[in-house]
Structure formats: C-alpha cells, structure tokens
Amino acid sequence: MKVNSVRFALVVVGVFGWSMMLPSATQVGLSDKVLVFPYETDFSFVSLIPQKEMGLRAFTLCMRVATELPEDRQIILFAYRTADYDELNVWRESDGRVSFYMSGDGIFFHLPPITTFRTSLCLTWDSRTGLSACWVDGKRSTYQVYKPGHSIRPKGSILLGQDPDKHLGGLEAGQSFVGEMTDLNMWDFVLSRSMIQAWHYGHRVPKGNVFDWGTMEYELNGNVMVVDDD
Amino acid sequence: MKVNSVRFALVVVGVFGWSMMLPSATQVGLSDKVLVFPYETDFSFVSLIPQKEMGLRAFTLCMRVATELPEDRQIILFAYRTADYDELNVWRESDGRVSFYMSGDGIFFHLPPITTFRTSLCLTWDSRTGLSACWVDGKRSTYQVYKPGHSIRPKGSILLGQDPDKHLGGLEAGQSFVGEMTDLNMWDFVLSRSMIQAWHYGHRVPKGNVFDWGTMEYELNGNVMVVDDD
Amino acid sequence: MKVNSVRFALVVVGVFGWSMMLPSATQVGLSDKVLVFPYETDFSFVSLIPQKEMGLRAFTLCMRVATELPEDRQIILFAYRTADYDELNVWRESDGRVSFYMSGDGIFFHLPPITTFRTSLCLTWDSRTGLSACWVDGKRSTYQVYKPGHSIRPKGSILLGQDPDKHLGGLEAGQSFVGEMTDLNMWDFVLSRSMIQAWHYGHRVPKGNVFDWGTMEYELNGNVMVVDDD
After folding, report:
1. Chain A to chain C, count of Cβ pairs less than 8 Å apart?
2. Where is the Pentraxin (PTX) domain positioned along the sequence (chains A, B, C) (predicted)?
C-alpha cells in the first residue's frame, strides 16, 4: 500500500513538474491556492515558516478545511512542536470533537462535523483569561477556560498533514491529514467576532502576522499538491 | 477533581481581581456581558434579585444559552424555589427535551438540541388558559396546556447554574450548568410573537419587568466569570 | 413479483398510450421533462445516445435526482459500458457514499444523503491531474485524485436505471434506480465552479456537448414514464 503510493507519487512528479518525494525548496505565497493531501501517508506534510517567532500568549488560528476521512478517524489539523513539547496541536478527534493541546491535556469542542464540504474553522485563545473558543463558519462555540497564564514557546516547527511525536519525526499514517486545506492564517492576538466573520466571508481583514496565506513561506514534503482554488 | 477546581479557581481570582470563591457583594447590570460557568461544580451559581415579587400568573422567560455538555446530561437552566416548592425550574432533560416544572409534574418540549453555539430560548405561560410554549431562535413550539389556574408563589430565591433541592442547599454537580448564559429577561406577561422575534434579533423590546439583563442585580458564588460579549 | 410488474406495465401502456415493455423508437428532447422509474425492476431503463463519441479525457456529468429508496440500498445512477469494461458507472453505494468507477476500482465521496427531495449532483474529472470531485447543489466536495492519465473508451452504451454486468445484459433489480431523474447533461471538459452553480440554479450555461437534456436522443425500455416537470 505504502509502496504503491510512493510509486504513484513518482509518476505524478512528472505530471506536475516538481518533486513531491523530496523536500522542495522553500516556496512563497499561496494566494488562491489549495493544498491537496490526496492519500493517507506517513511522509507527506507541509512545513510552514512563521513571519515571527511563535512565543505566543494569545492567538487566532484560522483555516478552511475539507476531508473525506471517516467520522471516527483522528485527524491532525495543525502541529506546532518544540523539542520536548507539542506546543499547539489541533485535532479532529475520533469522537468527532475538535480539540487543541498546548503542552499537555487538551480542550475539546462539540462542533458540527468536518465534512467533504469546506468548513471555515478558527480557534482563539488568550492566556490572560484562558478563554478559548472555536468558530465554525463565523459562529462562536461556548467559551471554555484553558491554561490561563500559559505561554506557547518559540523556535519550534510547524507542520500541516502530520503529527510529529518527536521533533520532526515519529509520523503516523493513521493520524495524517487527507483532504484539502486553504487560507490558513494566524494572528498573535484574539480577533473580534466581526473580524472572524469578515474572514469567513472572504472580506478584507488584517493580514495574519504569524501566518498569512498569501505570503506564506512553506516547504512541500512527500505527496502534497498545490492546486488552484476554484 | 473538585479539589483541583477549587485550587484552580483561587489562582484565577488573582488574574481577574475579584473573588469567585466567596459570595460577591451584590452587583448591578450585565449589559453586553456573558456569564461563563467554566467547570462542573456543586458550588458555582449566580443568585438573581428580581425587580418585583415573583407571584406570577403569567410569564415570558428568555435567555441565550450555549453549552458543551453531552446531549444526555441533565442541565438546570433556571431555578426559582420557595421554602417547600420548586416554583419554576427550567431543564434541558437527559433525553434532550426542554422542560419546565411548577410545583410538581413538568411539561416537556422536543426542540432542536442546545449546542455549543448560542440558542435563544424563551418560555411563555399564561395561567388563564394554561397555554405554554417554547420559542427557539424566534420559532414557537406547539402549544401545550399546563396548569391552568395555577400561581407561582412569591418570596423565593432565583439561581442560575444550580438546582437547589432545598432552600439554597442540596446542590448536585451532575445537574449543574456548564457553559454560557446571557441576556436573560423575564416579564410577568406573555410577549407577542413579534416581540419575541424582536428580542431574538436583538432589536428593542419592552424591558423585562421581573428581570432585565441590563440592570440585573446579582451575586456571584463559586467559580463563575463575567466576560464581555463579543 | 416480476410477473406482477409486467402485468401492471401492460395495463399502464393503455393509459399512457405508448409501449413501455418494448424498446420505444428513438425519441428526441426532454426539456421540462422528468424520467420517473416508478418500481424496482430488472428490465426498465433508458438508453441515451451521445452527441459525440465518448472517448473522454475529462468530463462534467450533472443530473437532478430524487428517490424514496432506503438509505442502505445500492442505486445505479449512470452506466456507460463498452464490451469488456464499465467505462463510467456512477452509484449511490449501500453505505450512502456516491462513487464512480472507470474500468476497475472506484472512488468514493461522503455526501449529504440523496432523498425524496431533488438533489442536483455533478461529477467532474480531469485525466491530466486526476482531480475529481462531486458537486451537491453547487457545493464542491473535497478533491480526490483518481486515475490520472486514464482515458474513457468510446463506442459503448449508456443506460439510466440499470447496471449492465455485460454489454446490455445482466441487469439486477436490487441495483436498479427507482425515483426521478431530470436535467442530465454531460460535457467533455471540467466546468468551472460558477458554471456548475449556474446549472444548479437553472441559469444559462453552455449546453452539454456529450449530452444535452433539451435535445437528448433516448429510448425508453420497460416501465419508465416521461412526465412534465412541475
């Protein structure tokens, strides 16, 4: 199965004209592009390079995401890891909840299912109060209090598509992301409701100062496609 | 578990600058504020002081509510109790129905689930006819007839977050409210459909003459946060 | 069971005034018409004659479809077969997914259920990239990569209502279509999102150059009714 995927990927390389099996050189900018993770692998991921160090005491993380994976399959949506800690991992859990984990136990949200149609998903967290929430298509979940006083540590690695169990290693196919991701943005503060709704509807909002999809620096690894959004 | 919550709450006190473990002094006014009940406890609640005695022969009770609690968990949404009677208790039952009880057997409504996204919920009852209904996001349930001729007794205590099994005692964590409540209003008459819809959409309606969120007198007990609505 | 259907069909012939048990002569044009497959049979189907040969390296296939069949019943939605291959078969699988198969293993999409209310369904596929998607009521599913480099072979037979397991034979009642189909169109290229949405909303789009419902050449077989759309 894995062997087939590898073989297939090598064929596809020719079709698309860039290597998908070896880390690509750093590329810049994903405006109007979608990342397609077509198969379940333990080697396909996208590394993201943030615009500023990720020592964070608050954040808003937004993305549009769609998947065909079964409802009871764990899915990694975002992984930021330093040497010893999962600093900020976002999951769709096997029970359907969306969760995030900062250096230990996580927090869980009952949201509408993430389906084959695009969901716009934002997470907000503020260390001062611990108030955290998920936003689905511009609607806020109930606030929960999570790790007030905590800080996310800087100088780690950010991956889409895989969950590294150690610093850039220990990938598991059964947790990988399969599907489409686009328009990922991150801010080092909590956006207002009106800003999050503006982002959801594709209106102008302040560009992400941690990640901005339009000017994103990224590296493709394994079998990931960059396709035009339609 | 409970010990941890207490300890955690004491830490949070410092962050917010007001005590959440001892009854706060009476405070006034919750305009643009949300009550967040972040954990399951048997000691966190908010006492409300009505503007007029609650000897009622009709009412409209409205609130906006969101919760992450499981679908099959009993949840107290509003409790008004005199010495010997549950005068008006509103529940989300373990079978998902919304109910209210006045001094004995209750009445039950099949409504869309109360989720992590805010539901606007109103209850109306008129002693003259017994006609009672729930209104979800401005849409009325089927009318049911409940206790025509009955009166709610005055001079009791009103609690959010807990169900007192005796006058301000006998609290159970497994029935407590966890989540967010805002914009609770109560009138001593039945509002028209157009008024209830106006309230749902945040338009101007006659201020509640039993409870008005904007001028509410209340006391915080245990671990309850008052946060800005966004 | 089969005997009863046959008998009934013979009666109906009288009512409608055209033979439904023998292949009808080729007819042309289905503007504002709906095909109704009223019963489960192994003999009712509609043959379609394409405007051009179906040697395809890309396509968009759209139809509007409604059924009362149970959610766990396999349903054939479109069958194009050459002598030895199922060139393009579209199914609602018994697990509820929508799939299509081109000469071998298929590809599967988790979509909202196909119900008694009309669903507008499009499929797109491009051999160059393998990108394939389903569109439900104008919303695109996640892209999946399916058979890049493949070609659909020309000179086969196209059926609605039955799945031939050999060239025009081997029909099974338990896979047949029961319900309504209308507005089937097919193009030999991938329509843009805006075109697919325009088709969904009934606005003007380029006429299908493989099949165009308005000028469709077709033959009715068995018990299939052509009724005015309402």
Report:
1. 49
2. 31-230
